[in-house]
Protein backbone atom coordinates (compact mmCIF):
# COMPACT_ATOMS: atom_id res chain seq x y z
CA UNK A 1 0.00 0.00 0.00
CA UNK A 2 1.15 3.53 -0.85
CA UNK A 3 0.38 6.09 1.88
CA UNK A 4 -0.77 9.64 1.27
CA UNK A 5 2.61 11.18 2.04
CA UNK A 6 4.29 8.77 -0.37
CA UNK A 7 1.75 9.71 -3.03
CA UNK A 8 2.45 13.38 -2.30
CA UNK A 9 6.22 12.97 -2.56
CA UNK A 10 5.94 10.95 -5.77
CA UNK A 11 3.53 13.44 -7.32
CA UNK A 12 5.79 16.40 -6.47
CA UNK A 13 8.83 14.63 -7.96
CA UNK A 14 7.02 13.63 -11.15
CA UNK A 15 5.52 17.08 -11.56
CA UNK A 16 9.01 18.56 -11.22
CA UNK A 17 10.39 16.19 -13.87
CA UNK A 18 7.53 17.02 -16.21
CA UNK A 19 7.85 20.76 -15.73
CA UNK A 20 11.61 20.56 -16.27
CA UNK A 21 11.01 18.94 -19.66
CA UNK A 22 8.47 21.61 -20.59
CA UNK A 23 10.47 24.58 -19.22
CA UNK A 24 14.21 23.76 -19.31
CA UNK A 25 15.10 27.01 -17.48
CA UNK A 26 13.30 25.54 -14.45
CA UNK A 27 15.89 22.76 -14.35
CA UNK A 28 18.61 25.41 -14.30
CA UNK A 29 16.80 27.09 -11.42
CA UNK A 30 16.71 23.82 -9.47
CA UNK A 31 20.40 23.18 -10.17
CA UNK A 32 21.44 26.66 -9.03
CA UNK A 33 19.24 26.38 -5.93
CA UNK A 34 20.96 23.12 -5.01
CA UNK A 35 24.40 24.67 -5.51
CA UNK A 36 23.53 27.66 -3.33
CA UNK A 37 22.08 25.43 -0.61
CA UNK A 38 25.19 23.28 -0.54
CA UNK A 39 27.42 26.36 -0.30
CA UNK A 40 25.33 27.84 2.53
CA UNK A 41 25.42 24.54 4.40
CA UNK A 42 29.21 24.38 4.11
CA UNK A 43 29.57 27.97 5.28
CA UNK A 44 27.05 27.93 8.14
CA UNK A 45 26.94 24.31 9.24
CA UNK A 46 24.00 23.42 11.44
CA UNK A 47 22.75 27.02 11.54
CA UNK A 48 21.74 26.63 7.90
CA UNK A 49 19.18 24.03 8.97
CA UNK A 50 17.55 26.23 11.59
CA UNK A 51 14.38 26.36 9.49
CA UNK A 52 14.39 22.81 8.16
CA UNK A 53 16.82 20.03 7.38
CA UNK A 54 18.80 20.31 4.17
CA UNK A 55 17.07 17.18 2.86
CA UNK A 56 13.69 18.82 3.37
CA UNK A 57 14.78 22.13 1.86
CA UNK A 58 16.30 20.41 -1.19
CA UNK A 59 13.18 18.34 -1.87
CA UNK A 60 10.76 21.18 -1.11
CA UNK A 61 8.54 22.54 -3.88
CA UNK A 62 5.46 24.63 -4.22
CA UNK A 63 3.45 24.63 -7.39
CA UNK A 64 0.90 27.05 -8.77
CA UNK A 65 -2.18 26.29 -10.85
CA UNK A 66 -5.17 28.29 -12.04
CA UNK A 67 -8.79 27.19 -12.51
CA UNK A 68 -11.94 28.92 -13.66
CA UNK A 69 -14.90 27.91 -11.51
CA UNK A 70 -15.84 26.83 -7.98
CA UNK A 71 -16.68 23.38 -9.41
CA UNK A 72 -13.17 23.07 -10.86
CA UNK A 73 -11.66 24.25 -7.57
CA UNK A 74 -13.70 21.64 -5.70
CA UNK A 75 -12.26 18.97 -7.99
CA UNK A 76 -8.75 20.27 -7.34
CA UNK A 77 -9.48 19.94 -3.61
CA UNK A 78 -10.37 16.28 -4.15
CA UNK A 79 -7.16 15.59 -6.08
CA UNK A 80 -4.98 17.23 -3.44
CA UNK A 81 -7.05 15.72 -0.64
CA UNK A 82 -5.79 12.36 -1.90
CA UNK A 83 -2.28 13.61 -1.13
CA UNK A 84 -3.10 14.69 2.42
CA UNK A 85 -3.22 18.36 1.43
CA UNK A 86 -5.86 20.71 2.81
CA UNK A 87 -6.86 24.26 1.80
CA UNK A 88 -5.12 26.82 4.02
CA UNK A 89 -5.58 30.58 3.82
CA UNK A 90 -7.55 32.90 1.56
CA UNK A 91 -5.74 35.32 -0.74
CA UNK A 92 -7.44 38.04 -2.76
CA UNK A 93 -5.03 38.97 -5.53
CA UNK A 94 -7.57 41.37 -7.04
CA UNK A 95 -6.90 43.78 -4.17
CA UNK A 96 -3.19 43.03 -3.82
CA UNK A 97 -2.30 43.78 -7.45
CA UNK A 98 -2.05 47.12 -9.23
CA UNK A 99 -2.53 45.32 -12.54
CA UNK A 100 -5.65 43.38 -13.51
CA UNK A 101 -5.32 40.03 -11.71
CA UNK A 102 -8.95 38.85 -11.35
CA UNK A 103 -8.41 35.82 -9.10
CA UNK A 104 -8.83 34.69 -5.52
CA UNK A 105 -6.64 31.92 -4.20
CA UNK A 106 -5.97 29.36 -1.51
CA UNK A 107 -3.06 26.98 -0.94
CA UNK A 108 -3.32 23.22 -0.56
CA UNK A 109 -0.71 21.77 1.78
CA UNK A 110 -0.14 19.30 4.62
CA UNK A 111 -1.00 20.74 8.02
CA UNK A 112 0.42 18.20 10.47
CA UNK A 113 4.01 18.83 11.61
CA UNK A 114 5.10 15.27 10.89
CA UNK A 115 3.55 15.37 7.43
CA UNK A 116 5.26 18.66 6.67
CA UNK A 117 8.58 17.16 7.73
CA UNK A 118 8.05 14.18 5.42
CA UNK A 119 7.18 16.28 2.38
CA UNK A 120 5.94 19.89 2.57
CA UNK A 121 4.58 20.09 -0.99
CA UNK A 122 2.14 23.00 -1.50
CA UNK A 123 0.06 24.15 -4.45
CA UNK A 124 -1.02 27.79 -4.65
CA UNK A 125 -4.34 27.56 -6.46
CA UNK A 126 -6.06 30.56 -8.03
CA UNK A 127 -9.65 30.77 -9.26
CA UNK A 128 -10.97 33.24 -11.83
CA UNK A 129 -13.69 35.70 -10.71
CA UNK A 130 -16.00 36.20 -13.72
CA UNK A 131 -18.66 37.73 -11.43
CA UNK A 132 -16.47 40.77 -10.72
CA UNK A 133 -17.79 43.59 -12.97
CA UNK A 134 -14.55 45.55 -12.59
CA UNK A 135 -13.03 43.09 -15.05
CA UNK A 136 -15.89 41.40 -16.93
CA UNK A 137 -19.03 43.07 -18.26
CA UNK A 138 -22.26 41.08 -18.41
CA UNK A 139 -21.74 39.89 -21.98
CA UNK A 140 -18.16 38.74 -21.49
CA UNK A 141 -19.05 37.12 -18.20
CA UNK A 142 -21.79 35.06 -19.86
CA UNK A 143 -19.46 33.94 -22.66
CA UNK A 144 -16.71 33.09 -20.20
CA UNK A 145 -18.95 31.09 -17.86
CA UNK A 146 -20.39 29.15 -20.82
CA UNK A 147 -16.90 28.32 -22.04
CA UNK A 148 -15.74 27.20 -18.61
CA UNK A 149 -18.84 25.07 -18.04
CA UNK A 150 -18.12 23.15 -21.23
CA UNK A 151 -14.64 21.87 -20.36
CA UNK A 152 -13.37 18.97 -18.26
CA UNK A 153 -10.07 19.43 -16.44
CA UNK A 154 -9.95 16.17 -14.47
CA UNK A 155 -11.17 12.80 -15.79
CA UNK A 156 -13.72 10.91 -13.68
CA UNK A 157 -11.26 8.04 -13.15
CA UNK A 158 -8.77 10.43 -11.49
CA UNK A 159 -11.43 11.89 -9.21
CA UNK A 160 -12.66 8.44 -8.19
CA UNK A 161 -9.15 7.33 -7.28
CA UNK A 162 -8.60 10.62 -5.43
CA UNK A 163 -11.74 10.14 -3.34
CA UNK A 164 -10.66 6.62 -2.47
CA UNK A 165 -7.14 7.71 -1.49
CA UNK A 166 -8.50 10.49 0.70
CA UNK A 167 -11.01 8.21 2.43
CA UNK A 168 -8.63 5.28 2.98
CA UNK A 169 -5.44 7.40 3.35
CA UNK A 170 -3.60 5.02 1.00
CA UNK A 171 -3.89 3.18 -2.32
CA UNK A 172 -2.73 -0.21 -3.56
CA UNK A 173 0.44 0.12 -5.62
CA UNK A 174 -1.24 -0.43 -8.99
CA UNK A 175 -3.99 2.11 -8.26
CA UNK A 176 -1.42 4.56 -6.87
CA UNK A 177 0.54 4.36 -10.12
CA UNK A 178 -2.60 5.00 -12.16
CA UNK A 179 -3.54 7.93 -9.94
CA UNK A 180 -0.09 9.49 -10.35
CA UNK A 181 -0.15 9.07 -14.13
CA UNK A 182 -3.56 10.73 -14.42
CA UNK A 183 -2.77 13.49 -11.93
CA UNK A 184 0.49 14.53 -13.59
CA UNK A 185 -1.13 14.38 -17.05
CA UNK A 186 -3.90 16.72 -15.86
CA UNK A 187 -1.32 19.47 -15.33
CA UNK A 188 0.70 19.02 -18.53
CA UNK A 189 0.65 21.79 -21.12
CA UNK A 190 -1.92 20.80 -23.74
CA UNK A 191 -1.05 20.67 -27.43
CA UNK A 192 -4.68 21.39 -28.39
CA UNK A 193 -4.94 24.52 -30.58
CA UNK A 194 -6.12 27.66 -28.81
CA UNK A 195 -8.91 29.84 -30.21
CA UNK A 196 -6.82 32.92 -30.90
CA UNK A 197 -9.69 35.44 -31.06
CA UNK A 198 -11.20 34.22 -27.77
CA UNK A 199 -7.82 34.17 -26.05
CA UNK A 200 -7.06 37.71 -27.21
CA UNK A 201 -10.48 38.91 -26.03
CA UNK A 202 -9.69 37.76 -22.51
CA UNK A 203 -6.09 38.94 -22.76
CA UNK A 204 -7.31 42.51 -23.22
CA UNK A 205 -8.82 42.20 -19.74
CA UNK A 206 -5.95 40.28 -18.16
CA UNK A 207 -3.26 37.89 -19.31
CA UNK A 208 -4.08 35.83 -16.22
CA UNK A 209 -7.75 35.62 -17.29
CA UNK A 210 -6.68 34.46 -20.75
CA UNK A 211 -4.37 31.82 -19.29
CA UNK A 212 -7.26 30.44 -17.24
CA UNK A 213 -10.34 30.94 -19.39
CA UNK A 214 -8.85 31.07 -22.86
CA UNK A 215 -7.86 27.39 -23.01
CA UNK A 216 -9.68 24.10 -22.53
CA UNK A 217 -7.29 22.65 -19.94
CA UNK A 218 -5.23 23.71 -16.96
CA UNK A 219 -1.46 23.39 -16.49
CA UNK A 220 1.23 23.91 -13.92
CA UNK A 221 1.91 27.62 -14.06
CA UNK A 222 5.15 27.56 -12.14
CA UNK A 223 7.03 25.28 -9.80
CA UNK A 224 9.15 26.66 -7.00
CA UNK A 225 12.23 25.23 -5.28
CA UNK A 226 13.35 26.54 -1.90
CA UNK A 227 16.73 28.18 -1.47
CA UNK A 228 18.66 29.22 1.64
CA UNK A 229 20.12 32.41 0.11
CA UNK A 230 17.79 33.92 -2.46
CA UNK A 231 19.97 36.97 -3.06
CA UNK A 232 22.91 34.77 -4.04
CA UNK A 233 20.64 32.68 -6.27
CA UNK A 234 19.38 35.84 -7.99
CA UNK A 235 22.98 36.86 -8.68
CA UNK A 236 24.01 33.46 -10.03
CA UNK A 237 20.95 33.12 -12.28
CA UNK A 238 21.63 36.56 -13.73
CA UNK A 239 25.27 35.56 -14.33
CA UNK A 240 24.02 32.59 -16.36
CA UNK A 241 22.15 34.94 -18.66
CA UNK A 242 18.65 34.15 -17.38
CA UNK A 243 16.47 37.23 -17.15
CA UNK A 244 15.06 37.63 -13.65
CA UNK A 245 12.22 39.92 -12.60
CA UNK A 246 13.32 43.25 -11.18
CA UNK A 247 12.97 42.56 -7.48
CA UNK A 248 12.80 39.99 -4.73
CA UNK A 249 9.28 40.11 -3.28
CA UNK A 250 8.64 40.12 0.47
CA UNK A 251 10.72 41.28 3.45
CA UNK A 252 14.14 42.80 2.79
CA UNK A 253 17.46 41.10 3.36
CA UNK A 254 18.67 42.34 6.72
CA UNK A 255 20.81 41.35 9.70
CA UNK A 256 17.95 39.99 11.82
CA UNK A 257 15.98 36.71 11.64
CA UNK A 258 14.41 35.71 8.35
CA UNK A 259 10.65 36.23 8.50
CA UNK A 260 7.75 35.04 6.38
CA UNK A 261 8.64 34.50 2.72
CA UNK A 262 10.87 36.00 0.05
CA UNK A 263 10.21 35.14 -3.60
CA UNK A 264 11.52 35.94 -7.05
CA UNK A 265 11.37 34.36 -10.50
CA UNK A 266 12.80 34.37 -13.98
CA UNK A 267 10.63 36.12 -16.52
CA UNK A 268 7.89 34.27 -18.36
CA UNK A 269 9.26 32.63 -21.48
CA UNK A 270 7.73 32.60 -24.95
CA UNK A 271 6.48 29.04 -25.41
CA UNK A 272 5.31 27.68 -28.77
CA UNK A 273 1.54 27.12 -28.90
CA UNK A 274 -0.82 26.17 -31.71
CA UNK A 275 -3.36 28.93 -32.43
CA UNK A 276 -6.62 28.50 -34.35
CA UNK A 277 -7.73 31.44 -36.51
CA UNK A 278 -11.40 32.36 -37.10
CA UNK A 279 -11.33 30.56 -40.46
CA UNK A 280 -10.31 27.32 -38.74
CA UNK A 281 -6.70 27.33 -39.87
CA UNK A 282 -4.02 26.50 -37.30
CA UNK A 283 -0.78 28.44 -37.10
CA UNK A 284 2.24 28.35 -34.85
CA UNK A 285 2.40 31.07 -32.23
CA UNK A 286 3.88 31.76 -28.82
CA UNK A 287 2.46 32.74 -25.43
CA UNK A 288 4.22 34.08 -22.35
CA UNK A 289 2.43 32.76 -19.26
CA UNK A 290 4.76 30.39 -17.40
CA UNK A 291 7.86 31.14 -15.37
CA UNK A 292 10.15 29.68 -12.76
CA UNK A 293 9.82 30.94 -9.22
CA UNK A 294 12.13 30.41 -6.24
CA UNK A 295 11.53 31.08 -2.56
CA UNK A 296 13.32 31.50 0.76
CA UNK A 297 11.18 30.69 3.79
CA UNK A 298 11.48 32.33 7.19
CA UNK A 299 9.74 32.25 10.56
CA UNK A 300 5.95 32.27 10.86
CA UNK A 301 4.73 35.48 12.48
CA UNK A 302 1.74 36.02 14.75
CA UNK A 303 -1.18 38.25 13.83
CA UNK A 304 0.57 41.10 15.65
CA UNK A 305 3.79 40.35 13.79
CA UNK A 306 1.94 40.34 10.48
CA UNK A 307 0.24 43.64 11.29
CA UNK A 308 3.65 45.17 11.95
CA UNK A 309 4.96 43.75 8.65
CA UNK A 310 2.03 45.25 6.76
CA UNK A 311 2.51 48.64 8.45
CA UNK A 312 6.17 48.65 7.43
CA UNK A 313 5.24 47.84 3.82
CA UNK A 314 2.88 50.81 3.84
CA UNK A 315 5.58 53.01 5.32
CA UNK A 316 8.05 51.92 2.64
CA UNK A 317 5.44 52.68 -0.06
CA UNK A 318 4.75 56.10 1.37
CA UNK A 319 8.38 57.14 1.71
CA UNK A 320 9.27 55.73 -1.70
CA UNK A 321 6.39 57.67 -3.27
CA UNK A 322 7.78 60.88 -1.76
CA UNK A 323 11.09 60.26 -3.55
CA UNK A 324 10.35 58.21 -6.71
CA UNK A 325 13.69 59.24 -8.22
CA UNK A 326 15.58 57.36 -5.50
CA UNK A 327 16.46 60.51 -3.61
CA UNK A 328 16.75 60.65 0.16
CA UNK A 329 13.63 59.81 2.17
CA UNK A 330 12.52 62.32 4.75
CA UNK A 331 14.11 60.35 7.58
CA UNK A 332 17.54 60.14 5.92
CA UNK A 333 20.35 62.64 6.12
CA UNK A 334 20.28 65.18 3.28
CA UNK A 335 22.22 63.99 0.29
CA UNK A 336 22.19 60.34 1.32
CA UNK A 337 20.42 58.32 -1.39
CA UNK A 338 18.56 55.15 -0.51
CA UNK A 339 16.72 52.83 -2.88
CA UNK A 340 13.63 50.98 -1.79
CA UNK A 341 15.52 47.94 -0.48
CA UNK A 342 17.87 50.07 1.60
CA UNK A 343 14.94 52.01 3.02
CA UNK A 344 13.16 48.76 3.90
CA UNK A 345 16.26 47.40 5.65
CA UNK A 346 16.54 50.57 7.72
CA UNK A 347 12.88 50.43 8.73
CA UNK A 348 13.10 46.73 9.60
CA UNK A 349 16.12 47.37 11.81
CA UNK A 350 14.19 50.12 13.56
CA UNK A 351 10.88 48.30 14.09
CA UNK A 352 11.56 44.53 14.06
CA UNK A 353 13.41 42.77 16.93
CA UNK A 354 16.84 41.63 15.85
CA UNK A 355 16.83 38.24 17.61
CA UNK A 356 14.57 35.21 17.80
CA UNK A 357 14.47 35.63 21.58
CA UNK A 358 13.03 39.12 21.30
CA UNK A 359 10.55 38.06 18.61
CA UNK A 360 9.23 35.40 20.98
CA UNK A 361 9.24 37.67 24.03
CA UNK A 362 7.20 40.31 22.17
CA UNK A 363 4.75 37.76 20.76
CA UNK A 364 5.63 38.55 17.16
CA UNK A 365 6.55 35.06 15.89
CA UNK A 366 5.72 31.42 16.52
CA UNK A 367 8.05 28.86 18.08
CA UNK A 368 7.89 25.31 19.34
CA UNK A 369 9.30 24.70 22.81
CA UNK A 370 10.97 21.58 24.18
CA UNK A 371 12.65 20.63 27.45
CA UNK A 372 16.45 20.60 27.13
CA UNK A 373 17.91 17.15 27.96
CA UNK A 374 20.91 18.61 29.84
CA UNK A 375 18.83 21.22 31.67
CA UNK A 376 19.91 22.39 35.16
CA UNK A 377 20.13 19.43 37.55
CA UNK A 378 21.04 21.18 40.80
CA UNK A 379 17.76 20.30 42.46
CA UNK A 380 16.26 23.73 41.95
CA UNK A 381 12.69 24.11 40.80
CA UNK A 382 12.20 25.32 37.26
CA UNK A 383 10.96 28.88 36.83
CA UNK A 384 7.30 29.29 35.92
CA UNK A 385 7.61 31.82 33.10
CA UNK A 386 8.48 30.86 29.58
CA UNK A 387 10.99 33.66 29.23
CA UNK A 388 12.91 32.47 32.30
CA UNK A 389 12.74 28.82 31.25
CA UNK A 390 14.41 29.69 27.96
CA UNK A 391 16.90 32.17 29.44
CA UNK A 392 18.02 29.78 32.19
CA UNK A 393 18.52 26.83 29.87
CA UNK A 394 15.54 24.68 30.85
CA UNK A 395 13.68 24.99 27.55
CA UNK A 396 14.72 25.40 23.94
CA UNK A 397 12.78 27.53 21.43
CA UNK A 398 12.79 26.50 17.77
CA UNK A 399 11.21 28.73 15.12
CA UNK A 400 8.19 27.47 13.20
CA UNK A 401 8.65 27.68 9.44
CA UNK A 402 6.23 29.91 7.56
CA UNK A 403 4.37 27.44 5.32
CA UNK A 404 2.04 29.88 3.59
CA UNK A 405 2.02 32.82 1.19
CA UNK A 406 1.80 36.61 0.99
CA UNK A 407 -0.89 38.00 -1.35
CA UNK A 408 1.08 41.11 -2.23
CA UNK A 409 4.17 39.05 -3.06
CA UNK A 410 2.14 36.60 -5.15
CA UNK A 411 0.54 39.50 -6.98
CA UNK A 412 3.96 41.06 -7.48
CA UNK A 413 5.26 37.88 -9.11
CA UNK A 414 2.16 37.71 -11.34
CA UNK A 415 2.50 41.38 -12.33
CA UNK A 416 6.22 41.11 -13.05
CA UNK A 417 5.48 38.46 -15.65
CA UNK A 418 2.62 40.27 -17.43
CA UNK A 419 3.17 42.07 -20.71
CA UNK A 420 0.70 44.82 -19.79
CA UNK A 421 -1.55 45.90 -16.94
CA UNK A 422 -4.83 44.79 -18.57
CA UNK A 423 -8.06 46.66 -17.90
CA UNK A 424 -10.02 47.34 -14.72
CA UNK A 425 -13.06 49.54 -14.14
CA UNK A 426 -12.70 50.82 -10.59
CA UNK A 427 -16.02 52.67 -10.82
CA UNK A 428 -17.72 49.30 -10.47
CA UNK A 429 -18.26 47.58 -7.13
CA UNK A 430 -16.14 44.43 -6.83
CA UNK A 431 -17.79 41.07 -6.23
CA UNK A 432 -17.41 39.80 -2.65
CA UNK A 433 -15.31 36.69 -2.00
CA UNK A 434 -13.89 35.59 1.31
CA UNK A 435 -12.69 32.49 3.16
CA UNK A 436 -16.21 31.47 4.22
CA UNK A 437 -17.46 31.74 0.65
CA UNK A 438 -14.55 29.64 -0.57
CA UNK A 439 -15.16 26.99 2.09
CA UNK A 440 -18.75 26.64 0.92
CA UNK A 441 -17.76 26.58 -2.73
CA UNK A 442 -15.42 23.60 -2.31
CA UNK A 443 -17.38 21.93 0.52
CA UNK A 444 -14.43 21.77 2.88
CA UNK A 445 -13.12 24.21 5.46
CA UNK A 446 -10.43 26.65 4.38
CA UNK A 447 -8.17 26.57 7.41
CA UNK A 448 -6.79 29.62 9.20
CA UNK A 449 -2.96 29.49 9.05
CA UNK A 450 -2.60 31.47 12.29
CA UNK A 451 -4.71 28.91 14.13
CA UNK A 452 -2.48 26.11 12.80
CA UNK A 453 0.72 27.82 13.97
CA UNK A 454 -0.78 28.72 17.33
CA UNK A 455 -1.94 25.16 17.91
CA UNK A 456 1.53 23.85 17.08
CA UNK A 457 3.10 26.30 19.54
CA UNK A 458 0.56 25.62 22.30
CA UNK A 459 0.86 21.85 21.95
CA UNK A 460 4.61 22.15 22.52
CA UNK A 461 4.06 24.37 25.57
CA UNK A 462 1.59 21.90 27.06
CA UNK A 463 4.20 19.16 26.65
CA UNK A 464 6.82 21.32 28.41
CA UNK A 465 4.45 21.93 31.31
CA UNK A 466 3.81 18.19 31.65
CA UNK A 467 7.50 17.26 31.58
CA UNK A 468 8.46 19.90 34.15
CA UNK A 469 5.37 19.28 36.30
CA UNK A 470 4.23 22.85 36.04
CA UNK A 471 0.55 23.50 36.71
CA UNK A 472 0.80 26.87 35.04
CA UNK A 473 3.22 28.22 32.50
CA UNK A 474 3.07 32.00 32.26
CA UNK A 475 3.52 33.33 28.81
CA UNK A 476 1.98 30.20 27.29
CA UNK A 477 -1.19 31.80 26.00
TrEMBL record:
Protein name (Swiss-Prot/TrEMBL): 2-oxoadipate dioxygenase/decarboxylase
EC number: 1.13.11.93
SMART domains given in the database record: DUF1338
An MF annotation (GO) of this entry: dioxygenase activity
Species: Streptomyces dysideae
Annotated keywords: Dioxygenase, Iron, Oxidoreductase
Cross-referenced Pfam families: HGLS
InterPro entries: HGLS (IPR009770), YdcJ_bac-like (IPR047869)
Annotated family: Belongs to the 2-oxoadipate dioxygenase/decarboxylase family.
Enzyme category, top tier: oxidoreductase
Keyword Oxidoreductase (UniProt): yes
Amino acid sequence: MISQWQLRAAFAARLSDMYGREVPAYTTLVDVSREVNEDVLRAQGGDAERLGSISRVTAERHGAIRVGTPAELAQVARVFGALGMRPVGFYDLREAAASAVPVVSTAFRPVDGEELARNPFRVFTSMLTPADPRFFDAGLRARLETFLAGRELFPPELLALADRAEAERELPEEDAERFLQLAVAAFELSAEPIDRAWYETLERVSAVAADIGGVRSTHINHLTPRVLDIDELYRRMTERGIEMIDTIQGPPRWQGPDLLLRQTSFRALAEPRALRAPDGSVTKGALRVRFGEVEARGIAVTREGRARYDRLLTLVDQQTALHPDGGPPARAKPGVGEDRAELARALWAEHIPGTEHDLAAQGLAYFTYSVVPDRPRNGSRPPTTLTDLVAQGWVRADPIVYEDFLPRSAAGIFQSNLTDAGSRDNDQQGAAYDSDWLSGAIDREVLDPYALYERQQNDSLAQVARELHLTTLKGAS
